[in-house]
Write a structure and sequence with these properties.
The protein is an alpha+beta fold and 157 residues long. The model has no long low-confidence stretch (mean pLDDT 87). A seven-stranded antiparallel beta sheet has the order 1-7-6-5-4-3-2. It is globular and about 45 Å long. The longest helix has 20 residues. The protein contains three helices and seven strands.
């Protein structure tokens, strides 16, 4: 399993950064390799990606979502991956966005990319594109303020 964690500070209020991140169908504007995301319902997404010449489709479930704090997901089909993005208020008009991603590389190209940390570089570049997008817009294109609680684990926590 490969793990990546990257952060970036964006010069917008926390609600603006969070609201934009909930617009999953807009991800292709700042995430390279993401061709399309279809939001099926509040908790389910269908992804189409093309990374390093490898095309994949998979479904994902939002496992936790709390306004202005966190969005977490995991794949339910296709390549194994899970992630979370957290939002931290730095000032009234500045927010730290931290993305954590865990994924299982498949095939030679993906394993080589993970070994050479190309995926780390790409995640950093994608966060920079998010920063440029949200700061240029100055406001979000929409937002979902609902709440999804994390399911308890096997111990009931």
């Amino acid at each position: 399993m490969t793990s990546i964690e990257k952060s970036i500070d964006v010069d917008v209020p926390i609600s603006v950064a969070y609201n934009q991140w909930t617009q999953f169908e807009d991800f292709p504007q700042f995430m390279s390799g993401v061709e399309a995301i279809t939001q099926i319902d509040d908790e389910h997404l269908h992804w189409k990606v093309s990374i390093g010449g490898v095309d994949r489709e998979f479904d994902a479930e939002i496992t936790e979502q709390h306004a202005d704090e966190r969005v977490a997901w995991k794949s339910t089909s296709g390549p194994e991956q899970a992630g979370a993005v957290s939002f931290y208020r730095i000032a009234d008009d500045k927010t730290r966005v931290t993305l954590q991603l865990d994924w299982q590389p498949e095939g030679l190209v993906e394993k080589a990319g993970a070994l050479l940390q190309i995926d780390d570089i790409q995640v950093g570049q994608d966060l920079k594109k998010f920063k440029e997008l949200i700061e240029a817009q100055g406001m979000e294109t929409g937002g979902w303020r609902g709440d999804i609680d994390r399911a308890p684990d096997a111990t009931g926590r």
